[in-house]
């Protein structure tokens, strides 16, 4: 249950929007929230069929499920998405900013266009979505924003300077916005996973994956459901005193 204007709001009346939810961590997050009966909005940009597959898995539960497409680099498209959700009675009480692009390569090889694109999706998209959906949370004096960051936003990574920069920006955004909206009953936290078994690691071959697992004290990659469980916990009413935190589930890889 969530709290609206000081009163309890039933799980079935609670709506969560997950950006970039057509696969990987985003899909796991959508299914986790759907499993308790919340209304789930699955955002995607181009992966229409994959988003529908996630929606079908969510529909076995009791909450409403909706898919919506938007380019998160565009304020206009985000505003249209917000209006569409409102027209369907799906104002998000919880926003999970999960959408993001990865980038692997030497900084000297990064083009200006690549820099702008990854920054626009990862950082600007988080900013625009938070700005668009905060007013409803503030007006009802309850809301949760959870930003999906990365362990590289904490410690950085060679050959991932661009990606690390965007995630470091998200971490700073999280800490600052948390202070701004805390008086309105809204919390903002970030989950910064280590290596997770998703297609984002497809650029690594089998040997590189094995070497990576050997570096991690837990001896394995994280499962998407392990990340989604932490996101879900941070969205609970009971987590209201956890605010402005960057929590990194990484198997002891970075402490």
Automatic annotation (TrEMBL):
It is an enzyme of class 1 (oxidoreductase). Its EC number is 1.1.1.100. It comes from the Bacteria. Keywords: Oxidoreductase. GO terms for molecular function: 3-oxoacyl-[acyl-carrier-protein] reductase (NADPH) activity. SUPFAM superfamilies: NAD(P)-binding Rossmann-fold domains. InterPro entries: NAD(P)-bd_dom_sf, Sc_DH/Rdtase_CS, SDR, SDR_fam. PANTHER family: 3-OXOACYL-(ACYL-CARRIER-PROTEIN) REDUCTASE, 3-OXOACYL-[ACYL-CARRIER-PROTEIN] REDUCTASE FABG. Belongs to the short-chain dehydrogenases/reductases (SDR) family. This is 3-oxoacyl-[acyl-carrier protein] reductase.
């Amino acid at each position: 249950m969530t709290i609206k204007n000081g009163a309890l709001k039933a799980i079935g009346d609670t709506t969560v929007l997950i950006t970039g939810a057509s696969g990987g961590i985003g899909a796991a997050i959508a299914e986790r929230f759907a499993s308790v009966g919340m209304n789930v909005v699955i955002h995607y940009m181009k992966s229409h069929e994959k988003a529908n597959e996630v929606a079908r898995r969510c529909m076995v539960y009791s909450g409403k499920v909706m898919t919506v497409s938007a380019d998160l680099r565009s304020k206009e498209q985000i505003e249209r998405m917000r209006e569409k959700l409102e027209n369907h009675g799906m104002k998000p009480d919880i926003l999970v900013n999960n959408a993001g692009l990865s980038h692997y390569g030497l900084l000297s090889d990064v083009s200006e266009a690549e820099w702008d694109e990854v920054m626009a999706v990862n950082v600007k998209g988080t900013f625009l979505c938070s700005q668009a959906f905060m007013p409803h949370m503030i007006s009802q004096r309850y809301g949760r924003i959870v930003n999906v960051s990365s362990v590289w936003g904490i410690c950085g990574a060679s050959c991932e300077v661009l990606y690390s920069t965007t995630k470091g920006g998200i971490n700073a955004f999280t800490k600052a916005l948390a202070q701004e909206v805390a008086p309105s009953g809204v919390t903002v936290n970030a989950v910064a996973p280590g290596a997770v078994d998703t297609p984002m690691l497809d650029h690594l071959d089998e040997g590189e994956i094995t070497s990576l697992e050997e570096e991690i004290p837990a001896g394995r990659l994280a499962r998407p459901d392990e990340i989604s469980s932490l996101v879900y916990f941070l969205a609970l009413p009971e987590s209201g005193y956890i605010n402005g935190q960057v929590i990194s589930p990484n198997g002891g890889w970075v402490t």
